[in-house]
Hints:
Layout: H1 5-54, H2 59-77, H3 83-114, H4 122-138, H5 145-169, E1 172-179, E2 186-193, E3 202-206, H6 223-232, E4 237-242, H7 244-247, H8 254-257, H9 262-279, E5 288-293, H10 295-298, H11 300-306, E6 312-316, H12 323-336, H13 343-361, E7 371-372, E8 375-376, H14 377-381, H15 388-393, E9 398-404, H16 412-421, E10 428-433, H17 458-468
Parallel strand pairs: 3-4, 3-5, 5-6, 6-9, 9-10
Antiparallel strand pairs: 1-2, 2-4, 7-8
Helix pairs in contact: 1-2, 1-3, 2-3, 3-4, 3-5, 4-5, 12-13
Amino acid sequence: MGISMKRFKDFLIGIMTATIVFTSIGGNVVHSAVKSDVENVHRKVEHLIYSLKNNYLGLKNVGNWQAYIKEARKLNSKLPNGSSKKKYEDKILRAEHLVNAAARVNQVEKSMKDNKHTLGNIPQWEKYIVLAKEDIFKVDARLFENEKAKLDERVSSCEKIIESIKINNEKYTKEELSFGIKGFEVKGELIKPKKVPKDMKTVVIVGGSGPTDRDGEVGNVHPYKDIAEGLALKGIASFRYDKRTLSHREHVSDKDYFNFTIKEEYLDDYNEIMKYLASRGDINKENIYVIGHSQGGYIIPMLEKANSSAKGYVFMGASFSPIEDLMVEQYEYLFSLSPNYPEDKKEEIMKELKDGNRKIKALDENSEDALILGASTKYWLSFKGYDPGKEASAIDKSMLFLQGLNDYQVREKELNKYKESLEGKTNASYITYEGLIHTFTKGDMTPNAYGEKEKVSQRVIDDIASFCK
């Protein structure tokens, strides 16, 4: 049976109309469903953030929030890919960082509450704290400023508990000190053995060049702290301090820099330290020794002239050559370890160092103020004519020279120059150590050695203690 053209057109129009109606209705249904999903995710995420901001970040709540985050992610997964889905995933992730950080902090606090406060538990707690800090670092401070600050405070409280446990269980006490010239106060730490010997010796640790802190921190090693604590266990007190170039760096500004000399960097503070320690009733001023490390050893004869009350001196990895010469040597050695470093840049740096070296050696009292290799004309002139060997030979007190044989910053040849200058002097002794670097920790002759978590060799501490006793 045939179909007329009119009926066929009506049939097509009917199909098209039905399709349009169906599509319109179905599209509204889909759009409505998506809109509903977005609203659900929005409510869930906003409630989560509100809850985090208005409730204690405690152990019980952490579990609820973790479940809530799981639900929010499940809802968000239903959304089509697009800006809304990405926006809510980002908010969920930021909330999760806070919840993870809170979980870590609670883990530390619970462990401290449930276990005895003994030295044996400290390594695990310190491990928890490191992980907690890593999680806190990820928290968005703009979204959770107060919450992040509260977690930081709780971690700090845990660290104080650990420190108090250490102090109570250690065989020495620690005292934070600040004294000296107004505006340039010396800031450091005095460590004393708990059982103070009648003839207790005290050691002052004078650090190396640059803005050196009281621990001598470089990479992952803290040589001055290791030495101080090691000597305390042997009944010897110590004082170590943050150099002025660190603790008062704001005063060592461009404005003052041209008048900054070795006197301001070392000698003024050293004199204040020796006077202060001598004034204390718990310190025997007749038994104070001085350890000078690196540049701190290089200037020991200057320290002796600034204040002659020390009983003896330890030169640790002490340089002998002029600073500007050592700078050239050190860079030449470092570049020899870096064959892939661009040759043009090597040449540029070495040219600058050698040009600076020549300028420094040509300085005199009439030279204009300038910055050469990072230091002022007056600073370089404060070393003019200085001969550490000749000056050390005039010291009539006991002197001990220590040298690590894997030290690439101050080589054994520097020690040999002291030996030559002090030949025949019976008050000087020398010890070298196989496998030790500039910080007197184990390592190879590369900068990577400072990245290893090594302690100062016990043999070094024993040798210093024997020298002082």
